[in-house]
Automatic annotation (TrEMBL):
The keyword Transmembrane helix applies. The gene is Tmem88. Its main location: membrane. GO terms for cellular component: plasma membrane. Keywords: Membrane, Transmembrane, Transmembrane helix. The lineage of its organism: Eukaryota, Metazoa, Chordata, Craniata, Vertebrata. Belongs to the TMEM88 family. The chain crosses the membrane at residues 21-49, 74-94. This is TMM88 protein. GO terms for molecular function: PDZ domain binding. PANTHER family: TRANSMEMBRANE PROTEIN 88-RELATED (PTHR28628), TRANSMEMBRANE PROTEIN 88B (PTHR28628:SF4). It is a multi-pass membrane protein. InterPro entries: TMEM88. It comes from Melanocharis versteri (Fan-tailed berrypecker).
Length: 134
């Protein structure tokens, strides 16, 4: 049976808050995974830009003794070359975790706010028709 207008509004806010929380959890998980997997690229590009004389030209000891402009340019190019495969690896890890944890199933439809008797469905408590993928 349909809910009253105030109850419908309250449930809409609750469902919106739950969906926002699930979205932020997905975003945090993606940020952590991408940061960890792309850390080698970040480090290599950072040192390449830091030691290049046309960009930042740091006065650090390793910039003066080990890295010249040519090696700094090589680090920058290497960093951007290894970024593409690492992006694919990071996305594969995120998709695998999201599928294993069934995070995308935790999003609730707003039709739960309209009618009484709707079931909350998250991860393993769902019936098989509500899965995001097989």
């Amino acid at each position: 049976e349909p809910r009253s207008p105030w109850c419908c509004l309250a449930w809409t806010l609750v469902i919106g808050a739950v969906n926002s929380l699930v979205f932020l959890l997905n975003l945090l998980l993606m940020f952590v995974i991408f940061t960890i997997v792309l850390l080698p690229t970040i480090v290599v590009v950072y040192f390449g830009f830091q030691c290049h004389s046309q960009v930042l030209h740091s006065s650090a000891r390793y910039c003066e003794s080990v890295l010249d402009d040519n090696s700094s340019s090589a680090l920058i190019i290497l960093g951007f070359v290894i970024m593409s495969p690492l992006l694919v690896v990071a996305m594969a890890i995120y998709c695998s975790l999201a599928r294993r944890l069934q995070l995308l199933v935790c999003f609730q439809p707003y039709s739960l706010a309209l009618y009484k008797g709707g079931r909350w469905c998250c991860a393993r408590g769902c019936n098989s028709q509500l899965k995001a993928w097989v």
